[in-house]
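Give me the fold.
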Amino acid sequence: MAAVLELIAGSYEQVTFGYRVNTDAEEWTVNANFTHHAHTASISAAAASERFVVTGSKDETIQLYDMKKRTEHGALLHHDGTITCLEFYGASHLLSGGEDGLICVWSTKKWECLKSIKAHHGHVTSLSVHPSGKLALSVGTDKTLRTWNLINGRSAFIKNIKQNAHIVRWSPDGDKYVAVVNDKVNTYDLETASVTGTITNPKRISSVKFLNNSILAVAGDDEVVRFCDLGKEKWVCEFKAHETRVKAVDSFMMEDYCVLVTASNDGFIKMWKLNLKKELESPTLLGEVNTTARLTCLAVWKPSSVQQTAEEPAAEATTSEELAQELSKTKRVRIVAEEVVLEDESKPKKKKKDSGK
């Protein structure tokens, strides 16, 4: 049975493209499903959950699409400035970051903003939710990497970094994370919050994606996609994916192989077959489509996404080591609306334990 799959891409031309992928044949075919001109400025971010696709733009709005009903679902208006990053946690919550320094937590049931937090003094450049749903990382133009404890609703800790990071990502197992500064990928250990390795790309990095817990796909300001083994701290494979710079990469698993999806300024979205079990070799092309637009961001919509399950919330943890210990106790925790009460770090904390008002 063929997988139900759609590729979503945003563009400089303000248009969102949707393509249905037919995975029946050896060579996959891609058919245009929709084009939507809902934004009034270039599209800067895209994300997909089991039901919804969201796009963020320089027009300060987040546009919603209900993929099951095939309808536009409205816009989220809270940020003042470009939407820089969007990430779903399961089917229940969306986190957004913007140039206004805010991180917003949205409920996907009623699409209301549960909490808005002044996360950075400057722009939020990237955010990432831990696989357990207990933590979120964010980086910004204030040269900090911040960890948010989503269970007790507080800032866990702040790490000053020498330069502005523009990408942050948890590994699939959640035992480490990477922060990207220009052309460098720094790997951090969860328990110590210290850099365990650094690898340098030939060009400034535009997008990264964990293919498994050790292999990271890296795209930059050239036409080549490179694969890095974070444990060995070395490049293990590279291939020419496009004619011009690659703007975004995503991936998903199909049976016993990985599918890497790339989007470029040349207008093409391409899907590549990659075997992660053997020594990495250059992937083979599964299918492609020319959007004729200058692409900026990419998301893969699969309605069979795994649902998150709820367990008891963890106790308060305030250090990296304590957070690592709490995370090892339970694997999955859903973000509960009442517990997402992230505070503004720029304001002094009250000593008394009241409702925070």
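The radius of gyration is 19 Å.
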